[in-house]
Write a structure and sequence with these properties.
Length: 287
């Protein structure tokens, strides 16, 4: 394990680069850029956690002092760092974080894990909308106010859940279901949302799109020819003609049924029909 130190009481930006192994990194002041590189790397901050905000954006973790000692471009930036060690708390950037919505507006900032925010009220009481890389959850009935979320992947309400990670597992689940079973399987009734939940859980367990497609096609008992027909039906909104089906089947001749399904998903053929852009704004409902 290697140890790295920044310049004591530094008031400018410096870059501290770790090793490919586990590192202990002490910036010692300033608004440093820390490159952890490989291993499990810990950055030590001389202050209590309540005096700082920790925010992860596009894979970069920022540490900002609430006192105003740092601001805007002067935030410390952490790359490939797994832990932040404050005087009173250790923040594990790899673990999922849980938040609870209360009266008044809250700010929930997730980390590198799959983070969840929970409200003790039904989904219909809230409006969910996206602005840039943040989501806003507005309580339209009670005193919950407007909650701002960043890097939070899942929302839990008293009667259901919403997945916001439409750039990852939720996108793959929506594409696969829409491609094989049609758009109504993505945004339909409570039974459909139960199926979404099952498929989403497989992705959450770390299974790949190809693996989940194999399970789905196997459970349905579909051949490659059947998958081709279903893909064309769901993407086009109409059944293919015999000539159209034959042409596409010839193009994928020799490919396993699950591979055809995964290919169609990766190409995003179903995106418009399931309104993937709209799902990215309001989330994918599931139970």
């Amino acid at each position: 394990m290697a140890t790295f130190y920044g310049l004591p009481d530094n008031r400018t930006r410096e870059v501290i680069t770790g090793s490919d192994g586990d590192d202990l990194i002490y910036p010692l002041g300033g608004w440093d850029v820390v490159q952890g590189r490989g291993g499990i790397d810990s950055v030590f901050v001389y202050g209590e956690a309540a005096g700082f905000t920790v925010m992860t954006e596009q894979g970069i973790t920022y540490i900002d002092a609430l006192s105003g000692a740092s601001a805007g471009a002067e935030r410390a930036q952490l790359y490939d760092v797994e832990r932040i060690v404050f005087l009173d708390e250790v923040v594990d950037l790899t673990l999922p974080r849980s938040f609870v919505g209360r009266d008044g507006g809250d700010i929930f900032v997730g980390g590198a894990g799959r983070d969840t925010a929970t409200w003790a009220a039904p989904r219909g009481q809230f409006r969910i909308e996206r602005v840039g890389d943040q989501h806003f959850v507005t309580d339209r009935v009670g005193a919950g106010g407007i909650d701002r979320l960043q890097n939070v992947e899942r929302l839990v309400f008293s009667d259901g859940k919403v997945a916001l990670d439409l750039g990852g597992a939720a996108r793959d689940a929506a594409r696969l279901l829409g491609t094989l079973l049609g758009p109504s399987s993505v945004t339909g009734s409570a039974p459909a949302q139960s199926v979404v939940g099952v498929v989403l859980s497989l992705f959450d367990q770390g299974q790949t799109l190809s693996q989940v497609a194999q399970l789905a096609v196997g459970a349905l008992g579909w051949s490659t020819e059947t998958v081709v027909g279903q893909v064309l039906l769901n993407v086009w909104g109409r059944a293919p003609t015999a000539a159209e089906q034959a042409s596409v089947s010839a193009a994928v001749q020799g490919m396993p049924a699950a591979e055809v399904a995964a290919l169609a998903c990766n190409l995003g053929l179903i995106d418009a029909r399931i309104n993937l852009v709209g799902l990215a704004d309001a989330g994918l409902p599931y139970v």
